[in-house]
Amino acid sequence: MEPGDFVEARRRLEAKARPGGVKLTSLTEAAGWVKDGDVVAIGGCCYSRTPLALLMEILRQERRGLTLARNLMCYEGEWFIAAQAVETVVSSWFAIGLPWGLSKVFRQAVEGGQVRYEEWSHLALGLRFRAGAMGVSFLPSLSMLGSDLMGVGSAKTMECPFTGETIALIPALFPDVAVLHVHRADRLGNCQIDGYPHMDVDIALASTTVLVTAEEIVSEEQIRSQPDRTKIPGFAVDALVEVPYGAFPHECYGLYEADFDHFDKYVAEGSSQGAEGVREYLDRYVYNTPDHKDYLSLFGAGTLDRKARDAQQLVGRG
Amino acid sequence: MEPGDFVEARRRLEAKARPGGVKLTSLTEAAGWVKDGDVVAIGGCCYSRTPLALLMEILRQERRGLTLARNLMCYEGEWFIAAQAVETVVSSWFAIGLPWGLSKVFRQAVEGGQVRYEEWSHLALGLRFRAGAMGVSFLPSLSMLGSDLMGVGSAKTMECPFTGETIALIPALFPDVAVLHVHRADRLGNCQIDGYPHMDVDIALASTTVLVTAEEIVSEEQIRSQPDRTKIPGFAVDALVEVPYGAFPHECYGLYEADFDHFDKYVAEGSSQGAEGVREYLDRYVYNTPDHKDYLSLFGAGTLDRKARDAQQLVGRG
Amino acid sequence: MSYSPAELLAVIAARQLAGVKSVFAGVGIPLLAAALAQKTHAPDLTIVVEGGSIGPELLPGRLPISTNEMRVAHRARVLPGITDTFLFAQRGFLEVGFVGGAQVDRFGNLNSSVVGSYDKPQVRLPGSGGANDIISLCHRVMVVTMHERRRFVPRVDFITSPGFLSGGTSRRDAGLLFGRVSQVVTNLGILGFDEESKAMRLEGLHPGVSVQDVVEMTGFDLLINDELPITEPPEEEELALLRGLDTERRFI
Amino acid sequence: MSYSPAELLAVIAARQLAGVKSVFAGVGIPLLAAALAQKTHAPDLTIVVEGGSIGPELLPGRLPISTNEMRVAHRARVLPGITDTFLFAQRGFLEVGFVGGAQVDRFGNLNSSVVGSYDKPQVRLPGSGGANDIISLCHRVMVVTMHERRRFVPRVDFITSPGFLSGGTSRRDAGLLFGRVSQVVTNLGILGFDEESKAMRLEGLHPGVSVQDVVEMTGFDLLINDELPITEPPEEEELALLRGLDTERRFI
């Protein structure tokens, strides 16, 4: 789909007859919605609320030619590069996190021309998702004006018909698939997110297909008892899977902190060795560990509980 | 300010040096921010969370030549017309509520040319506030296209540079003053709203000056304990007053239901008699009742408690 | 089985929602019709109300009288902002919308703004509210209204909510790429629009209503289908459910 | 009193926030500087972090390493979405922003995208993140960076974040009506920009640093003020507060 093509985006949504009922399914079936060549938008931000369980399942299903869109990419981006699953990355930032420096895998892939990096400013990418969520072709902004980022993607400038000033028009992004992790949802897909909402709501509304993992599937009564906490309406969701610790070792606000020791280990044993190192890591943690519980057991006894306590302390419930 | 003039709007905001500290003040001082001729945006919607205590104080201070902007106007609009305080109403709907039919006061004022009604679609007015909140001159939409509403206000059409389709450009509205009622705030003006958020957040961010009444001023600790419930940041607020039942006899989600018996009485004794009837009502309820507690006592013993119970039942806490 | 015109309207409108997944409904007959449909022909129906309520349930005896109050929030699943609620429709999530108006013309345009001219109105009406947005943004829209000659006018005084504008492709040409007025449900019959000209067309009659009755109550030349099926009258169960919702007979 | 270059940067940056009401700060030195300012020269300072956190407090020993994690949400007053957080800046609510970059040029443009060409980069850097937005949208922006010759280049390879572009009125001409790079705070001194040409200008030196030191570490011709005040060195209290925040010496 061309950037900003709200007409085609809406036609796809209308043609889809999104189911109105129960959305519960398995990780395997949920990930099965992703097709080769799709534009996949990833929720959360950097190492917060990354839908890792779903992303791992997408990797296991060996998709190819994907475009990944995420405002700040963390090491999940390295996984898709190492697995040769991604052709284009649409983002404003790609690394692992300050202490771990530049991403060697990313650098090699982009510098070598295997992966195209379409860079936007952080706000501009947010506005791309928001324009998509609003069902319009673009949103006006001052972001990116004058910078060389204007020449990278498909943003345009125009003279504002109200003020006569030059403004940037940031084109909508309508991903084929959104992949999100939330705190809780009812079986109809009404999703609640605690703490940082990041860009998940806009991503969900902008995408043709929406796949969600939730820490917990709760009763419809529970959702109805606090409807003002529901962020994503069920009618926007296609597939829903209960996956406790579905973002681990990334964090989930209030529930568990990121496991930075594992990040150190990932970088030392995997990422710092380049794509080959990452592939070895994937063999162990992803391809040979199809069940999320088995995957979690690799992090060592007590780690999950400790990270849960750390989270509670940070949000003032410790 | 011309519609869509985000440049002037931002200059006013920057020039203002909005205070960073405690925002607590009195109703009198808060209403004192409103000047003759101002564009005043009103929060809530119809008879929900209308900032009646603040609006009454603005009436007591005898402002003139106001423009009132609110997505759905209820009888507070009649008050300003009867008090000859308003020149223009910017809205998508103006009445009292279905059972009470057309507003006689409104009809007479608009049909007689004393008041100009600038009508927008409901979404378009929402987008005007949202464009203002975003600091841009307009937002694109399909709303109002083809209708005669396009000729009323200052909306424009253009050919979309991404799709070639005709789109509507809805110009930002930057009110001089926002008048809002919320559930709770800390003394710095960080505001939490339960239930329906209506358009209050966009109105707050779009306006040069923001006046807020809260049912309850709570500790900073309480706000910090649930930061994901805070809707309006303190830096957007200029004046804050604790006014329990500050929207009564309109409703406040979860706290009290609207007093429809009073609506009947208002229409029978006041509004159905035209502007003169409303002025008599204002004499009794507003001009001769400068203290909000005295005002509330006019509604009869037990009414407030009963309406609180009704509210709890509706939101499932009864 | 006796029933009021409002009950007939609500039952017929509810039947049009068979199999529908989402409906944008205002208070009164539309909300009752949607709630009735949910209990009968459309179990997966999500009701959306413009005040910002998704999936509410009606509390009998406490029916909402505005789209923005707690009564519409009762047992809701989501309470989004108003602007966001309309944007769900703009994005394409909402299938069917309900609208009404003081005037409707032969191209399905609606007027809820002014009788007379905009600047010097003879009657100033409340205004669009969400009607313009619903008719412009939902997949398809049903006009639900009493059938009166003063209401069914050749050309509305003011197009508050665009139907097919001046007919033909004029709606699409104005940039309204999606949606359409699919049906006009009245207390006399069911009307649609000619595929080409987009002129209003009588497509069905309610029990005991003649073509002549409809023509007399319509202020413009109506196209009339060759076949005019007679509506099945409201069933006992439908009426019982409806009356169980509006126990105070506020709207029916 | 001995201190590291990073400590010096944090203390000097904090002092520039005297009296400021709101700051858009990234993790590391900027966030430490903001927290220090709040405890010293700017008691009413509201700290805003791009992950969507307003008014957080740092938990010593648990400093955030990304702008989007719970550690930045600690004791926050508001947790808005990321897009909304940047829009606060676009609307004009945020006074001072902090940015950095791999390269900065004589017009204050920053590069955090690529060394070499965009399409065939010699080094692909992480990218803008929020830097482009902060420099485009806040009232004024402070570049905080180590002063190195390879970093202070005549012309950045790629303008990720626009300073004064090609100088003169070019920033405004591009549509950037608000904001400006007001200062460049380095470990050697404080720099500003000529009012007309917008070329970078040395305006102050840190203790023990000579003009020659700065010139040698700068890869382009620098304007130099006639008067070059010497920075007051970090005070004991400032350093103590700073070290009390970053107890692990993660950033200082």
Structure, briefly:
Chain A is built from 12 helices and 14 strands. With 318 residues, chain A is α/β, with parallel strands linked by helices. Chain A has one domain: Glutaconate Coenzyme A-transferase (3-Layer(aba) Sandwich).
Provide tags for this entry.
heterotetramer, A: 318 residues, alpha/beta, Glutaconate Coenzyme A-transferase, 9-stranded mixed beta sheet, 14 strands, 34% helix, 20% strand, globular, C: 252 residues, two-stranded antiparallel ribbon, 13 strands, 25% helix
What does this structure look like?
By secondary structure, chain A is an alpha/beta fold. Chain A has one domain (6-123, 173-314): Glutaconate Coenzyme A-transferase. Chain A has 12 helices and 14 strands. Chain A has helices at 6-16, 27-31, 52-60, 76-82, 104-111, 122-134, 200-206, 220-225, 260-270, 275-287, 292-297, 303-314, and strands at 39-42, 66-69, 72-73, 86-91, 93-94, 116-119, 138-141, 156-159, 166-171, 177-185, 191-192, 209-217, 230-232, 239-242. In chain A, strands 1, 2, 4, 6, 10, 11, 12, 13 and 14 form a 9-stranded mixed sheet that branches. Chain A has a 3-stranded antiparallel sheet with strand order 7-9-8. A two-stranded parallel ribbon of chain A has the order 3-5. In chain A, helix 4 packs across helix 10 (275-287) and helix 6 (122-134) packs across helix 7 (200-206). Chain A starts with 5 loop residues before the first helix and ends with a helix. The model of chain A has no long low-confidence stretch (mean pLDDT 96). Chain C has one domain (5-245): Glutaconate Coenzyme A-transferase (3-Layer(aba) Sandwich), CATH 3.40.1080.10. Chain C contains 8 helices and 13 strands. Chain C has a 9-stranded mixed sheet, with helices on both faces. Chain C has a two-stranded antiparallel sheet with strand order 5-6. In chain C, helix 2 crosses helix 8. The radius of gyration of chain C is 17 Å and the shape is globular. The relative contact order of chain C is 0.17. The model of chain C has no long low-confidence stretch (mean pLDDT 96). The chains are: A alpha/beta (318), C alpha/beta (252). Chains A and D meet through strand 5, helix 5, helix 6 and strand 9 of A and helix 3, helix 4, strand 8, helix 5 and helix 6 of D.
